[in-house]
Amino acid sequence: MTIEHTDRSTDVVEHPEQFTNPGLPPHRPRLGDEDPKANKLSERIVLAIFTVSVLASIASIVGYFAIPVDPEAGSMGNTRLSTIVIGVGLGLGMLGIGVAAIHWAKSLMNDHDKVEERHEIAGDEETRGTAVEMFNEGVRDASIARRPLLKGAVGGALALAPLPFLVPLIGNLGGDWDVSRFKRTAWAPGDNGDRVYLATDPTNRRIKAAEVTVGSLFHVMPWNLPEHPNYLDEKAKAVVLLVRLDPQDLKETEERASWSYDGIVAYSKICTHVGCPVALYERETHHLLCPCHQSTFDVTDEAKVVFGPAGRALPQLPIDVDENGYLVAQRDFDEPIGPSFWERER
């Protein structure tokens, strides 16, 4: 049996040093470029979007004054409604400007492709002059001077858009800046010396130590706090996270050995960075995580910072149980809660 081997030469294709420029595809005119009615409709759409932006910004400002937040009312209703109105108005106001600008550029401005050869970054006087002329050409292309309604709409939208930011800020500049209020919370014993019970937030139910299982987490506030005349202010300072660990996992100093009860520890829920609520608990690592800037605190080691921008540990609430097994606060925090401030003293 004879097998023939055939040698086939491989054709070598040399790549050209430079490819031919295929050029730009043919320009396809838009409907508004050929139909004046369609062009006018696009202008009205842009005007309508800017109008929505203006009205949304105005609604946000009106909502700030029309729905005052009364901390003494003891209800979160006004707070939620005010936040929703301001947030939605602010969001629609800013979104309207962006959407209107995009629609304006896509439907009313020149859409012809332009090619510019690459050149050195540093340009001479002629190049800079050309750049200025190109900028002016873009302004003329926007036809802002020939569209007075759009000029007024975009001016009004841009003028009103920052106000939902500024009005609440300016309105609160004259508020109460007494930071000494953070040195005392509702966990402090009353005038009669009675200790304060730990209760579930927001159901206001007292907690027994027996129902706190290892690995569980409770959001806690002082019992009957909703009856306080300044409920919202006091709750903002007094919210606490309650966790039960295996007592062998706790690393307690001699000073704090009596602050926990059978592995149950309580720490302020207010992050020591900028005051966000620390509400995420990693059961496997025993870490508390702040969702705002990822500050992480080790529950087993007196809530010390293990990661993130927070500058100090979460304040610990000393706890105990009464004769019926209910958890109570021994006293208030031994340091101010929340972010650091100049007058803070331990």
From TrEMBL:
Segments crossing the lipid bilayer: 45-67, 79-104
UniProt xrefs under Pfam families: QcrA_N (PF19297), Rieske (PF00355)
Domain Rieske: 237-328
Entries under SUPFAM superfamilies matching the protein: ISP domain
Feature: compositional bias, Basic and acidic residues: 1-17
Protein's UniProt keywords contain Lipid biosynthesis: no
Region: Disordered, residue numbers: 1-35
Protein name from the UniProt record: Cytochrome bc1 complex Rieske iron-sulfur subunit
Species this chain originates from: Occultella glacieicola
